[in-house]
Specification:
The chain has helices spanning about 1-20, 20-30, 35-55, 60-80, 85-95, 100-115, 120-145, 150-170, 175-180, 195-215, 220-245, 245-250, 260-275. The longest helix has 25 residues, at about 150-170. By secondary structure, the protein is an all-alpha fold. The chain is globular and about 60 Å long.
């Protein structure tokens, strides 16, 4: 009967992924079927932690995050949790031998979100590592499974892809982060007077991350390549739209990619993959 509990828990992580991100859910569906549940399990865990620090304003967020953290490590150690999101996450952590140091770094960044509002360059890089790069490394563990040589080869591109996604999110959500949460992630950037110069510096950094990441995507196992490529294309398309948008507009509204264009990305990627044109 434990298998039913595993399946129910993983179904909860699937619901979280599909409810919170249609883009990532579509990309996950393009992974090999054996990879989908483990990746959703990571997404569900990350999303719940993020919800604690970004959304639950009427509750003691610090206490909730601490409880979630303790329950996470308890689930990993005991190989079980009655919290289905944590149970499915521990299944993935234990099956794929995901380093606890990555989870430590993730919680460190989540804890920063509770109190820190402005970042210098070193603090910014530290936050990006814990909030995004480690998630890329967790996913890479799943994609490479027991191939440690491949994992070591692709660590830098996986970190770069996670960083690119996070930095694009920061630009997309600059208005909400600044006005609702009083957060400014980009170092030495005054969002009261967000300028074209500031924006171009940030965009150059993101472009460098995307360039590094793309080289790694081409070297991923076939089972993971199409799904990761589609996620990359989603975010790169959003990035290009942001680049065409004036700083003043970014501080007025959230930039989005229309659903029809997301569908077109999937269609084009599928054709490229079929004819081995990715790359």
């Amino acid at each position: 009967m434990i298998e039913i509990f595993h399946q129910v828990s993983e179904s909860c992580s699937k619901i979280v992924a599909e409810s919170y991100s249609s883009s990532f859910s579509a990309a996950i569906r393009l992974l090999h079927k054996d990879l989908r549940a483990p990746i959703r399990n990571i997404y569900g865990f990350v999303r719940f932690a993020d919800e604690i620090v970004d959304t639950f304003h009427e509750h003691d967020k610090a206490a909730l995050l601490q409880q979630f953290k303790l329950e996470t490590y308890d689930a990993i150690e005991k190989h079980i949790s009655l919290n289905p999101i944590l149970h499915s996450f521990q299944l993935t952590v234990n099956e794929y031998d995901i380093e606890h140091s990555l989870i430590d770094a993730f919680f460190h960044s989540m804890e920063l979100d509770l109190t820190k509002k402005v970042y210098n360059k070193e603090e910014y890089e530290d936050y990006i590592f814990g909030s995004a790069e480690v998630v890329g490394l967790m996913c890479l563990k799943i994609f490479c499974k027991a191939d440690n040589a491949k994992f070591e080869q692709l660590k830098a591109p996986a970190k770069a892809l996670g960083a690119a996604f996070q930095k694009v999110n920061f630009l997309r959500d600059a208005k909400a982060d600044f006005q609702n949460l009083s957060r400014v992630y980009f170092p030495a950037c005054d969002l009261h007077h967000f300028s074209e110069v500031d924006k171009k510096i940030i965009e150059a950094d993101i472009q460098e991350d995307f360039d590094k990441a793309y080289k790694g995507i081409l070297q991923l196992p076939v089972s993971a390549r199409l799904g990761v490529y589609v996620a990359y294309k989603y975010y790169y398309s959003l990035f290009k739209k942001i680049k065409r948008t004036k700083p003043s507009v970014i501080m007025q509204k959230r930039i989005r990619i229309p659903d029809y264009y997301k569908a077109l990305i999937v269609l084009k990627a599928g054709v490229k993959n079929r004819f081995r044109m990715i790359g």
